[in-house]
Specification:
Helix content is 24%, strand content 43%. β5 and β6 form a beta hairpin. The protein contains 3 helices and 6 strands. It has one domain: Roll (Thiol Ester Dehydrase, Chain A). Strands 1, 2, 3, 4, 5 and 6 form a 6-stranded antiparallel beta sheet that branches. The chain is elongated. The chain is α+β, with helices and mostly antiparallel strands.
Length: 131
């Protein structure tokens, strides 16, 4: 995978369940935070897009859990993105930093609502430089 962005985070105690592992729902938060940080690194603001009438929204998420994260584990979320028709497909993998073990493979499909209708955003395409 040719990752184009990565961010390192740390598991917080309250993100874990009774089994002492990160609750599955929190992985979606990690993936979303990584996507938002990626967009910010490219100068893309959700607020500005919204003001211009463009709202990127998640249409589908697929997550494959490989190795659990535990409290205080540091991990890196790596990201690649590809344009498929009107969809932006984010390939996001999470690795535990202590041993570089793959913890999660995620695929997030996003689309744009432009002025209230499903559409494309030339501005977003240019900013993301998607193929």
């Amino acid at each position: 995978m040719n990752y184009i962005h990565e961010i390192t985070l740390k598991v917080r105690d309250y993100e874990c369940d009774l089994q002492g592992i990160v609750n599955n729902a929190n992985y979606q938060h990690y993936l979303e935070h990584a996507r938002h940080e990626f967009l910010l690194s490219r100068g893309i603001s959700f607020a500005e897009l919204h003001q211009q009438g463009t709202d990127p929204v998640v249409a589908r998420i697929s997550m494959s859990f490989k190795t659990p994260l535990h409290s205080r584990d540091e991990f890196t979320c790596k990201l690649a993105v590809k344009k498929e028709g009107i969809k932006y497909v984010f390939y996001q993998d999470i690795y535990r930093r202590s041993d570089n073990k793959l913890c999660l493979k995620g695929v997030v499909e996003a689309v744009c609502i432009v002025n209230g209708r499903l559409g494309t955003s030339d501005a977003l395409d240019q900013l993301l430089a998607c193929d």
